[in-house]
Structure of Enoyl-CoA hydratase domain-containing protein 3, mitochondrial:
Amino acid sequence: MTILHRNDAASVATLTMDAPERLNALSDDMLAALTSAFDDIAADASVRAVILRGTGKAFCAGHDLKEMQAGRQAPDGGAAYFKDLFDRCATMMQRIQSMPQPVIAQVHGIATAAGCQLVATCDMAIAADDTRFGVNGVNIGLFCSTPMVALTRNIGRKAAFEMLTTGRFVDAREAQDLGLINRAVHADALERETSELAQSIAKKLPAAVKIGKQAFYAQAQMSTAEAYAYAGDVMVQNMLIADTDEGINAFLGKRPPNWS
């Protein structure tokens, strides 16, 4: 059974997690499928934007707890398996932000624990207005330490710490206010709104978007002075692209750009 489907149309790759009976949990198989798909898309110059979504009642409910409990049967109580699991998950999450194409999460139902981490990791997110978000592992005695990494890079520290320590869920409107998602829309408009955002990005110069995405995450780790110096160098690289020259000339000439 295929648990991840890819469909390409109009320069947008749509990845659909299809394990509804497990609420699209990040099982070993799902992690492997997502990592492979993101690697393939990153090398595919025909793809300019990516949509990640799920089937069934949930976007993603986090790690597969049944698999995790089965890992305890090892002689070391599961220590090696757990370390490998969280390392593989971190690799997949970081791949999303290192690939050249922007990735948009199309979220519905629930996004919990590592599923919420997945939303926070994607470059953008559109959610149905009845979606709920939570880093609720603390409710079962497991603090969401790895989801915390992505969450605290999206929202304020105090709000993040409250979610992490109480297991409280937030609705889509609050998630938007906190900065976890770009916007909440009516469920009937979710697919259309996400597609329109992806298509808007797909129409831009791919080389500029690639340079910009890389710079966006790199500068965020720097001091202000370092970031300006780095970003200035990036602007120079961007200006020297032939298609950027064409884009500026087209703007000045009040005509559409003829990008290669």
